[in-house]
Write a structure and sequence with these properties.
By secondary structure, this protein is an alpha/beta fold. It has two domains: 155 residues, Rossmann fold (3-Layer(aba) Sandwich), CATH 3.40.50.620; 129 residues, Beta Barrel (Elongation Factor Tu (Ef-tu), domain 3). The chain has ten helices and 14 strands. The strands form three sheets. The chain has a six-stranded parallel beta sheet with strand order 1-4-3-2-5-6, sandwiched between helices. Strands 9-10-13-12-11-14 form a six-stranded antiparallel beta barrel. A two-stranded antiparallel ribbon has the order 7-8. The chain is elongated, with a radius of gyration of 22 Å.
């Protein structure tokens, strides 16, 4: 898969393609349905498929301070859409100037002049242009003028609930990782770099990887979780075969020690080694319990042992 950085990266002499557009944060099952239709249509027409997304999230530009929690980094998003068969991944810088393009200007500048789209595949609720004035019906009319077809794909639902990034975020915020995984089609994952903490876990016999995450990362509700940890390379990409193992993951401020800073700390079962400075992906599979304050260190250690064994039982082989 090719990765472009803005429309300036479109090669000279670029031919026709099928384009799909959206923020696509999470690449959940609803997104996968839309992207899958775009990939199939491109194959039928014998042209490449191009996925357009935006950085940062458009809401942060239009309404500063409203950036939602991010389910997938741009690097992770690229990995996931490559697995779906997309030929070109192109994040566009979403600026104030870009947000003020009228719908017809957006279509002409992005889809016609630069990408030479022969078809555009979007969700049926797709909006575009200044103040979200454009919809799928307008996209279809503009397509007839400019020579491309527009395809509004019905949104995927579970029990009449539309699958959306907003829905996933609400599950993550509540610590409901099983429902989040059902919508995503995989466990929710956060990526980051291991930094030095206070080393208290090591002193208690449970050395943890203290994860530094990017701003706006969708971190689950405070509590203890069972999950898995994977290695990332220096660019934040998943290392093939890089799973480090099952983990008991703590999210929160650790009230027993009156820590104020909210942290994500993963104790990787049966792992020995130094991870400081390494990139890790932490998958959250199941919530074990809420965050608690313990009256003694011994009580905390006893509970940590139970957490580890529950994680092993839930996620171990067999």
């Amino acid at each position: 898969m090719y990765r472009w950085h803005g429309l300036e990266s479109v090669p000279t002499g670029w031919g026709h393609c099928v384009v799909t557009i959206g923020v696509f944060d999470g690449i959940h099952r609803g997104h996968q349905s839309i992207i899958g239709d775009a990939v199939r249509l491109a194959a039928e027409r014998g042209v490449p498929s191009v996925l357009i997304t935006f950085v940062p999230h458009p809401s942060e530009v239009v309404r500063p301070g409203s950036h939602p929690p991010v389910l997938t980094s741009i690097v992770r998003r690229a990995e996931l859409v490559e697995d779906l068969g997309v030929d070109v991944f192109c994040p566009l810088p979403f600026t104030l100037e870009f947000s003020q393009l009228a719908p017809d200007e957006f279509v002409h500048r992005v889809l016609v002049e630069r990408l030479h789209a022969s078809a555009v595949v979007v969700g049926e609720n797709f909006r575009f242009g200044h103040k979200a004035a454009g919809d799928v019906a307008l996209l279809g009319r503009l397509g007839r003028s400019f020579g491309f077809t527009a395809h509004g794909i019905p949104l995927l639902t579970d029990d009449s609930t539309v699958l959306s990034a907003t829905y996933v975020r609400s599950c993550v915020t509540a610590g409901d990782m099983s429902t989040a995984a059902e919508i995503l089609g995989r466990p929710h994952r956060i990526d980051g770099v291991v930094e030095r903490g206070d080393r208290r876990g090591r002193e208690l016999g449970f050395p943890t990887a203290n994860l530094r995450t990017d701003a706006w990362t969708a971190v689950p509700a405070d509590g203890v979780y069972a999950g898995r940890v994977l290695r990332l390379d220096e660019w934040g990409r998943t290392v093939p075969g890089g799973e480090l193992g099952i983990a008991a993951i703590s999210v929160g401020t650790n009230p027993t020690f009156e820590v104020r800073q909210r942290r994500v700390e993963a104790y990787i079962l049966d792992f020995e080694g130094d991870l400081y400075g390494d990139g890790l992906g932490v998958e959250f599979v199941s919530r074990l319990r809420g965050m608690e304050r313990f009256d003694s260190i011994d009580a905390l250690v006893a509970q940590m042992k139970q957490d580890v064994e529950r994680a092993r039982t839930l996620l171990g082989p067999g």
